[in-house]
Every structure is written in C-alpha cells, then in structure tokens.
Design brief:
The chain contains 17 helices and six strands. With about 500 residues, the chain is mainly alpha-helical. Strands 1-4-5 form a three-stranded antiparallel sheet, with no helix packed on it. A three-stranded mixed sheet has the order 2-6-3. β4 and β5 form a beta hairpin. The protein is elongated. It comes from Nicotiana tabacum. This is Protein GRAVITROPIC IN THE LIGHT 1-like isoform X1.
Length: about 500
C-alpha cells in the first residue's frame, strides 16, 4: 500500500509541464482513473489474502497463482480431514492380532488334549503288553514271550514319539537357523535307539556264550545218558572224550565233602516237606508212627511213639533217605541190568568220575531241560514217585499236577520239585563218586534196636552225659531208627551213620 502512494506522488506535474497542462489533463485523468481502479483491486486482494501468506515483491500474476495454490492447499486439507484417522486402522489391526492369537491358543489346547489322550492309550497298551509278558513266563511259552516282548518295545517307542511331540508343542517348535537346538533334538531322538542297539549287541554276546555253555552241557548230558547198559554207536562217539585217561583221581576227602552235601540237601528238603504237611493239617504224630513201623519192618504202627517232641523232622528225614538210598549198591540203582563195573571196572571208574566232575557245577533243572530222559532223569522219576505218594501230593497241593508231569516225562518248575532235585543231584553225585573209587566204599545202615557204637554212629540229638553210664556217652542208649547211612572207605576211614537214639529201658 505504501508502494503505490509513492508512485502517485511521483506522477504529480512539475513546473515544466505547466504549458502543456491543458493538453494532457484529459489523458492524465484517464490514467489516474485506471490507476485508482488498480489500487482498489490490489487493496481488495490484500484484504482477502494478507501479504504474510504471499510474496511482497511479486506481481499480479504471481499473486493470482499464489491464490490458486492456497485454494488448492485448503481444499486438499479439507479432503484429508474427511478421511479416517490413522489410529482407527491400528486398533483394527490390533484386534485382528488378538483374534489370531486366541485361535492359535485354542488350537494348541485342542492338540495337547489329543496328545494326552494318545499318551493314556499308550500307557494302557504298555500295561496290557507287560501283563502278557508276565503270563508268558509261567508256564514258559517262548513264542508268546517273543510276541509280548515286541509289543512292549513298540509301545515304549510310541511313548517316546509322544514325548517328542509334547516337547515341540511346549517349546513352540525349532526356530529356523537354530542348528544347535536341532542337533540336540536329533540326539534326544536317536539316543534311545542307540541304547537299544547296544543292549541287543550285549544280548547277542550273552546268547553266544549261552550257546557255547549249552553245547558243553549237551556233550556232558549225552555222556551221562550213555553210561547205561544200552549204548548206541553215536553215543559212544559223543562220549569218546570221557574215555580218555583222567589225570586227576578221586580222593577220600572229596567223598566226605559230598556226603556233607547230601546231609544238607536232605535237611532242606525234609524241612520243606514237614512245613507243607503242617500247612495241610496233617497228624504229624500218626505220620511218625507210620515211619517207625516201616523202619522196623512191621505194618502195624505202635500206639506210642518213641520220637520226642519237636523231633518229627528226624523221622521224616529217615523216611526220605531210605527211599533215596535204596539200590545205592548197584551201579544204576537197579534201573537196568548193566554190569559195566564188573566187566570193565577201570573204564567204568573213569567214566563215573568224569561225569561227576562235569555234573558237579550244573543246574539239575537245566540238565533235565535238555535231556529229560537221561539216566539222571530216570533216577529222579523213580525216586519222586517212591517218596511222594499220590494221596500225599493231593493233600499237600490239592491236585496231582506235578505227578502227571513227572509221569509224562517232564520235570515241574516248582519250589517243591526244585528242592527234590537238589537232594537227587547230591545223592547221584555221591553214587558216581562211590563207583569211581577203587575199591568202592561200602555203605552200612544201623538197624532199629542195635547198640550205639560211637566209632560208626553219630546221634542227631545231643544227649546229656547224665544219660550215660559210667560217664560215657551212649551207654544205655540204642538206635530208635536210622536217619542216614554210613560209609567205610578203602583207606580205613569211616563216615559215620546218623541215627536217632532212645534210652534202652524205654525202648
């Protein structure tokens, strides 16, 4: 506005123009009129659009251009104000993220529930397979055992897979590029299989050792079975090694040690038999009277028993030993008519001692599992039927199952029969050792009512000196019944017979 006032002052006429004042007045009036109009227009423009928003030194065309730009600017701002603010879109995205997380969480919960259901099913399957595995042990069924074992291993592996699935779900999976976590997980997955492979290798080694042992036992058992009178040519070939000269010879102290083993085995079996009789509510006194009558070769039991209180075990042991040692003086317990000890005495002694050495460390049940009908198996068959009467077995066990198995040529795997086999093996070894000595020991047995001789007998009950006469043990005592036989060796040593003594005046 000031600019234009200065311009107006400059246009005022000077003194030099006075002569032409009249001519130029009209022309000047027109110019002033046009200039006033221009001032009004500029003034209006400045009022509408202040100078601060435009350029000061601009011309009219610039001002117009500036006006149009400002209008466009305001119109654009108005349009932007009409659009949605940015925080609305952010809120919607946040809500969508929350919905997605909730869906993922629901899916994981559902997956974990399904995984737990599979775990419970796998545990139930393991229990079922393990029960089948236990049932396959008794009675022993090798095929059923193999199937049950495979089922148990399969279910355990299934549980291992479920465990890995659980770990992955809890850990959220393995991040891409995290090779260390991947390697650790791979080791965890492979470790059970490596352990299984190692166990299988150990089992293979154990089986190989067992096969070698069974081959040796088969060789020994075959030689035992060939000791009878009827020997085939094939058996003679298998037992050819036993015919080689034996560098080691049996000694009397070995014989005495074997007699001690027989005594211990007899006590163990008798104790078990007596406990079973008491559990079956037997009349122990009546059973003792029957044993006494059998030892005196009378069929009628006496009214009063000579056995004292708590001494029934000695009477029962006497009964068992009498049955076990019956036929002991014959080389085969009279199971056949073999006379090898008379025809080929030296060879028979070597064979007996070889069998003694081979059988000493063997488990009788394992031997009979390989060759149930060998000579030792036939010995067990006859002695068990002689000791255990059918009525006795039915009373003790409620059935005759063990007897049926023995009659069928098998050998029961029970505690009672196992104790019997321990006694049978001890007597059989003593018998082999007896016929391997030269000369063979002679066995003797004290008869009922005979006088007590300390050099040949020992009492199973320790009596006080007051029972003796003249301060000597045994004076006034006689044999009530024999408990086990005695032996006299070729070198003059004596293994004393065990007897049950009773006072002579009360006999």
């Amino acid at each position: 506005m000031t600019l234009f006032l200065v311009n107006v002052g400059a246009c005022r006429p000077t003194s030099s123009w006075k002569t032409s004042r009249t001519k130029a007045s009209k022309k000047m009036a027109n110019k002033v009129s046009n200039f006033s109009d221009l001032i009004q227009r500029v003034t209006a423009s400045c009022l509408l659009h202040p100078l601060s928003s435009g350029r000061i030194d601009g011309n009219i065309s610039d001002a117009r251009y500036s006006d149009e730009s400002e209008d466009d600017k305001y119109s654009t701002e108005d349009e932007e104000e009409k659009e949605d603010p940015p925080y609305v879109e952010t809120r919607e995205k946040f809500q969508n993220v929350e919905v997605t997380k909730e869906e993922i969480r629901t899916e994981k919960v559902t997956e974990m529930e399904m995984l737990l259901g599979e775990v419970f099913d796998a545990v139930s399957a393991v229990k079922t397979a393990y029960v089948s595995l236990q049932e396959a042990h008794c009675p022993w069924d090798q095929d059923k055992m193999r199937v049950a074992d495979v089922a148990v291993i399969s279910e355990l592996r299934r549980l291992g897979v479920l465990r890995e699935r659980f770990r992955r779900n809890v850990g959220g999976g393995i991040r891409k590029g995290d090779w260390r976590v991947g390697a650790a997980t791979l080791r965890e997955v492979v470790a059970p299989y490596e352990a299984t492979v190692e166990e299988l290798r150990q089992e293979v080694k154990a089986k190989e050792i067992e096969i070698d042992n069974l081959r040796e036992k088969l060789k020994t058992a075959t030689s035992l079975s060939s000791s009878g009178g009827k020997k085939s040519k094939s058996k003679r070939k298998v037992s050819g090694s036993s015919q080689a000269p034996v560098t080691m010879s049996p000694a009397p102290d070995v014989f005495e040690t074997t007699v001690s083993l027989v005594k211990e085995a007899s006590k163990s079996f008798t104790s078990l038999l007596l406990s079973l009789m008491r559990s079956a509510h037997w009349d122990i006194a009546a059973a003792v009277r029957s044993i006494e009558a059998a030892s005196s070769n009378t069929n009628t039991p006496t009214a009063d028993s000579i056995v004292g209180a708590n001494h029934a075990k000695y009477a029962l042991e006497s009964y068992v030993n009498r049955k076990m040692f019956q036929g002991f003086d014959h080389e085969t317990f009279y199971m056949d008519g073999s006379l090898s000890s008379l025809i080929h005495p030296d060879q028979h002694r070597r064979d007996c001692f070889t069998q003694y050495r081979d059988m000493k460390a063997m488990d009788p049940m394992e031997l009979l599992g390989i060759l149930p009908t060998c000579s030792f198996g036939n010995f067990c068959f006859k002695k068990y039927l002689a000791i255990v009467h059918p009525k006795m077995e039915e009373s003790l066990f409620g059935d005759l199952e063990q007897r049926r198995q023995v009659l069928a040529g098998n050998h029961p795997r029970s505690q009672f029969y196992g104790e019997f086999l321990g006694l049978a093996k001890a007597v059989w070894l003593l018998h082999l050792l007896t016929f391997s000595l030269d000369p063979p020991p002679s066995h003797f047995e004290a008869s009922k009512g005979s006088e007590f001789h300390p050099q040949y007998m020992e009492s199973v009950v320790k009596y006080s000196i007051s029972m003796g006469i003249g301060g000597r043990m045994g004076m006034g005592l006689v044999v009530g019944f024999p408990v086990s036989p005695g032996f006299k060796l070729g070198n003059g040593s004596v293994v004393k017979a065990r007897v049950y003594l009773v006072p002579k005046n009360g006999f």
